[in-house]
Predict the 3D structure of the following.
Amino acid sequence: MTENPFPLSKDDLLRAYRTMRTIREFEERLHVDFAKGDIPGFVHLYAGEEACATGIMMHLNDNDRIASTHRGHGHCIAKGVDVHAMMAEIYGRSTGACRGKGGSMHIADLSKGMMGANGILGAGAPLICGAALAAKVRGDRGVGITFVGDGASNQGTFLESLNLAAVWNLPVVFVVENNGYAESTAMEWAVSCDSYVDRATGFGMPGVTVDGTDFFAVHEAAGEIIRRAREGGGPALLECNMVRFYGHFEGDAQTYRAKGEVEALRASRDCLVMLGERVIEAGVIARAELQAIDGEVAALIEDAVRAAKAAPLPAAGDLLTDVYVAY
Amino acid sequence: MLNERIKPIVMPKWGLSMSEGKLTGWLKRPGASVALGDELLEVETDKITNVVEAGDSGILRRVLGEPGTVYPVKALIAVLAEPDVPDSEIDAFIDAYAAPATGGAGEEEEAGPRYHFAETPAGTLRYAKRDGTRGESGPAVLLLHGFGGDLDNWLFTIDALAESATVYALDLPGHGQSAKTLADPTLAGLSKAVLGFMDAAGIDRAHLVGHSMGGAVSMRTALDAPERVASLSLIASAGLGSAIDHGYIQGFTAANSRRDLKPVLETLFADQSLVGRKLVDDLLKYKRLDGVEAALRALSAALFADGAQAEILAGAVAATGLPTLVVWGEQDRVIPAAHATALGHAARSVVIPNAGHMVQMEAAGKVNALLKEHIGTPATGTAT
Amino acid sequence: MTPVVGIVANPVSARDIRRVVANAANLQVTDRANILLRVLAALRACGVAEVLMMPEKGGIRGHVERGVARARAHGEDPYPAIHPVAMPVTGTVEDTHRATRAMRQAGVSAIVVLGGDGTHRAVAAQCGAVPIAGISTGTNNAFPDHREPTITGLATGLAVTGRVPPHIAFAGNKRIDVAINGETPSEIALVDVALVAERYIGARALWRTENFRELYVTFADPEVIGMSAIAGLLEPVTRGESGGLMVRLSPAGQTSPPSGPRPGGTILRAPIAPGMMAAVGVTDWRRMPAGVPFVPEVEAGTIALDGERELSFTARDRLSLTLRDDAFRTVNVSGCMRHAAENRLLTGTPVPVSADL
Amino acid sequence: MSRKISMKQAINEALDLEMRRDPTVIVMGEDIVGGTGAHGEADAWGGVLGVTKGLHAKHGDRLMDTPLSESAYIGAAIGAAACGLRPVAELMFMDFMGVCFDQIFNQAAKFRYMFGGKAETPVVIRGMVGAGFRAAAQHSQMLTPLFTHIPGLKVVCPSNAYDAKGLLIQAIRDNDPVIFCEHKNLYGMECEVPAESYAIPFGEANVLRDGDDVTIVSYGLTVHRAMAAADALARERVEAEVIDLRTLSPIDWDSIVESVERTGRLVVVDEAHPRCNLATDIAAYVGQHAFGALKAGVQMVTAPHTPVPFAPSLEDLYVPSAEAIAAAALRTLAPTGTTPRSIAA
């Protein structure tokens, strides 16, 4: 009955909510299972940052490429990578997205345009320049999005890529996910320039800062920037100011954070809650509809964990496949 | 002036790229009597090792070349003369002999075969041409190599035949330095390409000399365009029976490395030591060219599928009455020498002992003599 | 007691989507710091020895401190002492509110504001009677004048040291109070209030003209950029005169009722953002007298204050808008400088030039 | 028809032919066109030593100059490869690998494995290697052992124009990342090269000279020194078999072992530094797989464990010489127990 006042259809809003809820549920579950010792290696959780990945990825198709970071689960899910395959990968199973050979930090699905999470900070930026170059050479209107944290934004690879993308006028969007911490170090201390918009300006491209916890703000700004790139307008930078609900990695005691900081962020800047409240308050979506999604997502994640645990480990012979073994 | 009674024996030049050769050993002692065609010495080049046969007769008066030593092409390595020629004249001859500059494998060399390219409907085809060395052109002779070969298979043939004919040697499509695309990988297709080449080169009629698959192509050409073919010389030819060593065809087509190719090539010769490093390398270089593998596979599928020759032309050729010579190496392991008699009385058939499939190289002197004799018969022959 | 000047410099203004949708300018942090150094030098030249500055984590303060230290290393001391306001930094508009209140309580004589319309609005909401000297950080502002900041600093210095009399040095400004459900005021605007149909804040900036519905301006200046330009191109209203203008807008190109322009409606081409000439459907407009509450016709949508979407409202919310004259004070830079020239305020020994020479 | 061209021309020709054959092949690098954006002549350099000269006129924008920014453009070449192009990125001097190594060994080399076989990275990174050009310590290194250490990379180092053309064409067609090392002192060396396209398979060493007395294994420039040494040895009636590895990853172990089983003696020549290089690698392999065939200790002839010196008099001592190789071969023929260990000449 109520007119939809949002720039997205009800279906798209539901899709956005489902994506964000899936990321949240996935990460919360990893948090619990990691603590139980079920998961090998390290995981870096994206909880609290869901609006950024989702708001951006809503504008992309499988032909658009993204290069992710070590904190990549949210990017994967928002780009359409199968949740079961992701969970199995994180559990090191042969049914994983990378057949158990990549793990949390290397989940990729090139068929979905997901060029990989990356364990090397700042390494995705040059790669996405190449993806954008390929799109430009083919003329297929594809764009490339690279994500970088405020910490890795200081990497030479990232800064060199800003220059290269501007020089070659590539359809690239550099997304700085500024959660305030380079691992444990404060962004204000570690980033000399203080403003990512200034950095972008310095490389001859526009930069925009948005509230990364506001799905609509990210979605609208990303939409304009991506459209600009797709139309040949060249690269741009989008800084999303966001919040990190967990530590740098699981097991991080976070003693560097102020007392009550995380609790306050969860109470006041939870992007998932804000999106839900906004659409309910506008009368576009009923609370029960969102609760139904919550239930479905919980079942999905539960099933993904169950399937991952039940899945076979890679065979010993898999050690030597998928690479030219020179010796 | 050189004494006409003294005959120099020099380091031979086999093919355009040869600039020097290693004398590996003498087969005649000094003072021995030498008849025309006698095996005199062995020479190893970077491509192949072969025997040098006497082009004259006489007494081997002086042996200058040391075994194990490398000499430039045309370097004087021995002297042949009748017994009554005084030693002093021989010494004077040797002193006066002007050895050519070493390393001077210049392309401007007089009278040697030259490589050319002809634009034909089958694409660009490479060929070598050597004008007759004695008198005006003489009849045209066209040499057609076999499966996977090229015009250098006629290394020892071209110069010998050029004494009395204008000699052409062709790289068939898919081979040598000719275009690697094969519009039609059948005998008919190759024959069409040969005729197209003859048109482009301005050859109305030629004596066709074909080796192996090239023999079958020659026969097909003689059947399709009898007016263009003066005679046939079929050397270890395909098309005379169904048997063929399929392992050779498959092995040659598939081999990608020296290790794989060398044993395959050894099948071609009675004396397997003739398969030197350079021969293998040159064939590998050919096989690596884009399009070659596809061409060989297409030919193999069209001509030798399932381990048997697809087209047997013996009966049809025998019926033409065209002057035909069949030559075989007794130890041919690719196509059996038994096929030599397939044409019955319609052809002269010679089987040469101690030679394999590459008989025109392994017994070059004998094959050349047979070819000269066959082609030297009245060119008009009985075909028309 | 020597006068103290407050300084509010916003490190994050002019970072929004207008950089992409309208080729708007960005003022880099280093440039913002350099502007402050120029203002500080001018203030010091006029005798201001101390300033109170809003702390921030955007990097301005670091650059300013480096500039001050470098001058001292030269043996120079051209700047006033800088005291940061003791307060936590949140990186939100709340910092501006809190700093402004603290400055007012500390008794500053004026506040120099470096920022966009939004920063000025935040200061104006809390400054009470303390005059504001505004400096623009971008190209998209209507409220602060576009002027070399050194001059703004000089004028402020002359004003707060009493060398320009207050009736010349300071001027009154209008504002619009927005009351939602009876709260007075819930929000304020210095230049314009726009009611738009979309009901989300999104990237804040206004550029989709098809959603424009109603516009209220304190002044209508055809020489500025933004929503005020729409009104200014219809019927100019100066900053000095009483009252403003109210404009009813509709999607451009729609000509038939009920949602299209009413009979007599028109389409206006206006520079609603830098480089962005947009077609705006105008239904009608009228004067907005001071002190008279206006109740919008739009039932639900978003309220944009000074060009930025700030909050959405629904049919359940009761809105009223009231323009107030003399709501807050600003430094009259032109007036100060003219007075300074006429009275040789910056001459060591005033020597009037003889007409005979 | 014998047509001789230089290695430089052969590389140019390989790029030209592959760009004609396959529209997904692009070529990028610093100054490979030269003068982009400047006001002088177009295609001014064609690479710092002119290797890519003339290609821009034929292929236009598929030949791209890059900023001096190796991390960015090598990474971009790798990213483009993962997205379906076949980029050839020129690193000018392989010594510059230091500033972009992450993109090569953590990204390109690992994608296929790390992503469970679901990614291919058909990128070629070509650059100059080797000493003897008076280019001093940062433009002269033979860093091949660094590359062979990394799984996932293929490493090529041709010794002549024919091989350079065929191996580069193979590298471009290969679906794995290939590090293509061009010895700058071989650029001008000519040999017979077919005008047509051809690909030389990886992992096949070239036996340049047959011999039954001692096996000399090398690659790149020192192959020619090894051949000169073999000629010198032949005058002493010692017949050396000379093996040119051509590709270092994959490496043709079989050819080495087959030869050593016949000769019983092995000299390994490597222009790289002596620790953990191709020479030690091959010596170890032969020790493990053909120990019974060895009649003498394996001799290694390498560059010294020093940076490449500038002074010509010093640099000439740096690269293994024919004399040092011949001396090493003679040591394998000396009675056991009398062979002194020696490195470099």
Confidence is low (pLDDT under 50) at residues 339-345 of chain D. Chain D has two domains: 4-192, 206-333.
